[in-house]
Structures are given as C-alpha cells and as structure tokens.
Design a protein that fits this description.
By secondary structure, this protein is α+β, with helices and mostly antiparallel strands. Helix content is 32%, strand content 20%. The chain folds into 3 domains: 87 residues, Rossmann fold, CATH 3.40.50.20; 129 residues, D-amino Acid Aminotransferase, Chain A, domain 1, CATH 3.30.470; 71 residues, Dna Ligase, domain 1 (2-Layer Sandwich). Strands 8, 9, 10, 11, 12 and 13 form a 6-stranded antiparallel β-sheet that branches.
Amino acid sequence: MTNANLGFDNKTIQPSDFGKVAVLFGGHSAERAVSMASGSCVLSALQEAGVDAHKFDPVEYPIGELLTQGFDRAFIILHGRGGEDGSMQGALQTLGMPYTGTGVLGSALAMDKVYSKQVWSALGLPTAKYRVVRKSDIAGGAGVASLDYDEILAYLGGVAMVKPAREGSSIGMAKVSDQNELCAAIAEALKYDDDVLVESYIDGPEYTVSILNGQALPSIRMSTPHVFYDYDAKYRDSTTEYYCPSGLDDSTEKALGELALSAFSALSGIGWGRVDVMRTSDGSFMLLESNTVPGMTETSLVPKAAKQAGMSFQELVLRILMSSLER
C-alpha cells in the first residue's frame, strides 16, 4: 500500500514498516464486551492488509509482555477505564512503545465528563448547565438523602441526565424529572464512580462527529425510540436509526465539524476520536463528551462516517495505525 492519499507526504509505506503490532483489546473495564467486538474487527482488517498484527488482552498478559513478545507498536482499542483514561497510554510511554491515538493528558481529560465540561466552559465552548455530586461531599454519612434534589433540578431546568463521570457506552446513565428519580439515579451512578455529573436535559436530536488526523468526518444523526441513546440503543436494539449524511445544510455541517475539532483539541485529543453533541430547539449545538477510543466494529459510528467520506474500514484502520509512526 502507499500513503499517497493518507496524508503522509506521499512516502511509500509497506505493511512491514509497522513491524509487529499489538492490538490491545478486551481489558478489565465495564466496556470489555464492546472492546472485544471492536478489537476483533480491527485485528482482522490489519491482518487482511498484510500487517503483522496480533491480539493482546491485558487480562491475559501483563503489559511488560509487549516487550518480551517483541512488539514494535500498539493499536489501542481498549474502551473505558484502563485503556481510554490515560493509564495504558502512560504504561506504553514508560515502555517506550509507540501507540495510536491520544496521549496521557488528553485521554484522562476526555474520559472524565466533569473535567471535560470544565475545560470547555473555561474556553467558552457550548455545553449544558451541570452540577457535580461527589461521594466524598455527601454530608455526615447521610448518603444521597442529604442532597437538595429540588434545588438541583430547579437549577437544571426541571429535567436532567445523570451520568457516572468516568464511564462510557451510557453505562449507569438515567434521565430524571423529579426528586425521587434523581435520588435513585445518583445512587445508581455512584455504584460506578465516586463522581457523578448531573446536567440539564436537552430535548433535541443527537449528533456525533468523528475526527481523523485533524479532519472532521461527515456528521451522523442518531434516532432511537428509547428515552435516550442508551447502552441497549447503541448495541442491542435494531430500532436505532443512523443518518449519514445527517441532513444538515453545508454551512451548519461545517460549523458542527469546526466545533467538534475545537472541542477535541481543547482536551488535547490526538489522531482520531469522536465528539458527541446535542442540538437545541434554537438550532445551536451543545457538547456532550469526547471519545478518544470509540467503537470500531464495521457498524460503529466512526466507520459509518468514514464510509460516507469514501473510506473503507481497512483504510480507516490503516490511517489510525499510521499515526503511530509519528511517535
């Protein structure tokens, strides 16, 4: 293969130039099942392209085995904690091994929904109003019952989304509209994380913008009969619909792409990722979160956007891997 159309200065890249590649997937997080599906697809695509790629599951091997087994670089496709939060990136840097995607700081920032919103807010980027509930702040051992739920809901407009700060795939999330629902949702979210984000509910369509090496790919609009785009809507339910092209006019599509790039860059995102947004009733966009290791099955959102941009799944995977050469 050549990289004449892959943005690498027209130098010829052969599969052997990557050396022995570890595709890191599986892991210990709550998103292990999704990572297994993504990683299997990435591994197959790389092998079919002639790359010497092999599965490496941190559940099965200590990370130091990457050196023992003679790997030259890593393709990170670990979703959630232990792979998307900066810890694996730090371990690989300590080993001196090049890897795909965002580094330690950017991974940690993007994984934490609270810190993401704080950075975006500080930079004037649009994101919904929010409150943070921390387990350490709950008063006097009284638990979640000590919180003023009416005040929280009033501040957030009466309807809110509750999210564990550092989980993905909508795990532990809930929509709430009264104090009993809010109390139960926070208690559930605290099972997954010590910090919980409670943000204003946005009643509008959800969009996602995939990013590849400094470019925004065509946006995708999601539609689901579920209360929100939850885990089942993402991975189990055939009723979810995806629109790509998303139906935006050219100027709005361009503006959304620029917003996504700004949001990704603000969190020190590198290489590839995905930014999720909601559109309000007045047509403006509100940032939800940035994903530094999004799903990568052939029907996941990033491959859908790449296909709309004229890129095959194999080409997408190779472009992501090629970014590791810059490390």
